[in-house]
Amino acid sequence: MFYRPEDGHDLPHNPFNAIVTPRPIGWISTRGTDGSENLAPYSFFNAVAYFPPQVMFSSTSAKPDRDGTKDSVANIRDTDVFCVNIVEYAMRDAMNVTSGPWDKEVDEFAKASIDRVDCETIPCSRVAGAPANLECKLTQIVQLPGEANFAVFGEVIGVHMRDDCMVDGLFDVTKFQPLARLGYKDYTFVKDVFSLTRPGE
């Protein structure tokens, strides 16, 4: 099968998200200038550089109360900081609650009964007990083609790793089984790992 996205695909559901998988989930926490808290998952998320360490996530829809974007991007525009919380399989249901289209006044930490703690380097909350948290300062927001597509880039200036996820000095993802997004309503998680040595190493 071949199709041009501009012409449509004639399938029951858009296959694009099912093709580019699995995708890590960036559970983005932000705090508004009014002190309000927000927590939302984004599956267009990844690390993009080592030195300095940098991450990105993309927001691809808008809410009526947020001037063409969503709560996360709006808060980051105002404060220049955000935190990426890594989602483990055990927190899948809580993460799903925070994905709802809630009003900006809704505190997703409270709505999903998620414990929070202050970040160390930025004025923002993070998910307490998450396998890892990346405290970030904004480097740039890039508007992508499309009505409400924004890519947010940040430099990681603080890293938290849960002690039980450390094994012999390595961050072991099998200790918490990171959640990943597939297409449609589907998810998966990492439980098996194998290694490859690059040529020349």
UniProtKB/TrEMBL annotation:
<dbReference type="GO" id="GO:0010181">
    <property type="term" value="F:FMN binding"/>
</dbReference>
<dbReference type="InterPro" id="IPR002563">
    <property type="entry name" value="Flavin_Rdtase-like_dom"/>
</dbReference>
<feature type="domain" description="Flavin reductase like">
    <location>
        <begin position="18"/>
        <end position="177"/>
    </location>
</feature>
<dbReference type="Pfam" id="PF01613">
    <property type="entry name" value="Flavin_Reduct"/>
</dbReference>
<dbReference type="InterPro" id="IPR012349">
    <property type="entry name" value="Split_barrel_FMN-bd"/>
</dbReference>
<protein>
    <submittedName>
        <fullName>NADH-FMN oxidoreductase RutF, flavin reductase (DIM6/NTAB) family</fullName>
    </submittedName>
</protein>
<dbReference type="GO" id="GO:0016646">
    <property type="term" value="F:oxidoreductase activity, acting on the CH-NH group of donors, NAD or NADP as acceptor"/>
</dbReference>
